[in-house]
Structures are given as C-alpha cells and as structure tokens.
Sequence to fold (296 residues):
Amino acid sequence: MRFELLQPKNLSEALEMKKAYGERAKVLAGGTDLLVLLKDRKLKAEAVMSLRRLRELNFIRVEDGKGVRLGALVTHGDAAASPIIQGRFPDLAEACSQVGAVQIQNLATVGGNLCNASPAADAAPPLLLTDALLTLASATGERAVPIQDFFLGPRQTVLRADEILKDIFIPEVPGRRGATYLKLGRRQAMEIAIVGVGVAIHLNGSDQQIADCRIAMGSVAPIPLRARRGEQVLRSQTIKDELIEEAAEVAAEEASPISDVRGSRSYRLDMIRVLCRRAAREALARAQRKKQEGSK
Fold:
C-alpha cells in the first residue's frame, strides 16, 4: 500500500490539489473507512489527501431562522455530544452515537460517513428526514445538492472528480417535531447496521393529529432512502395503532434488502416493520412532549 500523501493547509489549497489530481487522489477525513479499503486492496489510490489541517471544515453553527450547518469534518463524537444537535435534531445525535466504538466516533466524520456512501451509513437516515443540503466545493465554485440526490449506489455519489464535501446544512423544522433513529446490529455496539430506521413526526394543534411524517431507512437498499409511501399512510391522519402498523408494512414494501453475512432479506424486512413501529411511536411521544415542555 504505497501512495503520495497530500496535506493541504486550507480549503483553497485542498481544492487546487483535487483539481490537479482528480480521481487519482482519494480524500481522507477520519480515515476509518478509507484506510481499511486501501489496506484490504479494495481501493487503489495514487495519492491520499488528508483534510485534517482544514479547521475551517470543523464547526457546528446555528444560522438564526434558517437551520444548523455542520462542517464536513465534524466527528460523530462531537455531533453526538453537541447541545445544538441534541436539542434540535436528537435523531442525528442518536445516529452519531452509534457509529462504532468511542475511538471510531472520535475520528470518523459525518462528511466521511456520507461520502463513503455505504447503504448502512448511520448519519444518512436522520439527514434524509430533514431534507439536508450538502455543499460540494471545487476550485471553480460551489453547488448545493439535496441529500436525497447525493447517493447513486454503494460507494457511489454525485461528487465530481474535483469536488470535496464542504458542509451540511440542516433546515430548521418549525412546530412540534419529534424524531428518533433506531439501529439494529448483531451486537449492541461497534456494529454496522443490519437495518437502520429514522422517523420524524410533526404535530399541528391536536396531540392526535399528524401534520407530517418522514421515514428514512438504511441498510435496506443500494442507497439510504425515504419510505415515501409509508409516510403518506400517516400524513394528515389521526393517530391510530392500525395506521402505524400499515405505515411500517408499506415501508417494508418500499425496501429492497439483500441477504448477506449480517442478515437475510426476510429478516431485514421483518426488522424494518419492527423498527418502524417502534420509531414512529417514540417520535410521536417526543412530539407530544414538546407541548408539555413548552407550557411549563
């Protein structure tokens, strides 16, 4: 495993290097995925460009009235521990806290988790729930890409050869929103998801009336995806157990999981139903508690 190590001192320098090297240079953020792939010879690189000196990509910032912006180099540990993320997007904090062991969380970055484009990426479902926007930067400019358009397939994204993921913008979600992320692994820690499900429920007025619903899933298809037909079952409906059951069933129908060493296709489909039901009920409870907390 031999390659040239590039160590840009700032984003501008990194973008010029990426422009010059293109696909020949692989980008290293935390390195928890890339170095394993290189070591196992599943990936070849003429050069590896480390972003560790780019402090301008390591921040969590509230943009008043708009939302929260995360630099691509924010680690899972920092995102999970951030009061900003915990308060506004607890499902994202939950997802980041379940990425490997603490040592991995302190190295692995949210941006790297997305760019690795694993179908099991834990950060993807919570960000899909919020219609997050990804800023992709190159030496010639920037473009904003909705996260639902970012993934093309396993380890494939819309990133061009000269681009780097710069930051992630999560729009502010008004009203009474409750959201959660549940992950199933063969163990309770340090495990890639067999199935990951995020659910967000928005209430408007009555505790029993669902104004909007979002369901996102990981490790159940070639890319992380929204269960849009499952969402429609609950949207603008009065809460009923039968509807939650139906939404979970429809969400499973939208998935296309495979069988592998971690679980069979039929097992994954069953677990989508289970996790979707549990996540919907927890998201609903969190949304309902927002009224109680606000009235104190």
The two ends are 60 Å apart (CA to CA). The chain has two domains: 4-171, 176-294.
